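Hi Y.,

Following your request, here is the sequence exactly as I used it, all 112 residues.
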Amino acid sequence: MKKKKARSDKNYKFTGKKHSKPGAFALAFSFAPLALFFYAVSVSYRQSGQAQEKIGCIGVAAILVAFMTLWISIREARKENVIKKVPVTGAVLSVFMLAGWIAVYVIGWMGL
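Below is the corresponding structure, written out as tokens. Let me know if you'd prefer a different format.
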């Protein structure tokens, strides 16, 4: 009868890496531009499309928030001893929100 060979690698990985708190903050806060978009749509609907200044301010705030979360996410993703999934996800979401808001402004400037 053969003895079972003890496996030395059981696909366990023990590491000292932790989630970064600023990276988690950036991930959670990267949804703010989306919330601001829905708020801008509701303001525009309630004022029958006559809320240019308010929507412009909301859009600028959303772009600033997207830039801030992108900057924090990239900074945290570059650190060592940090699990990179959370800040990278925050960075990707921030890029999508930033692209969406810039598209809204470009469409507004073009008058489409």
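Residues 52-111 form one domain.

Thanks again,
Q.
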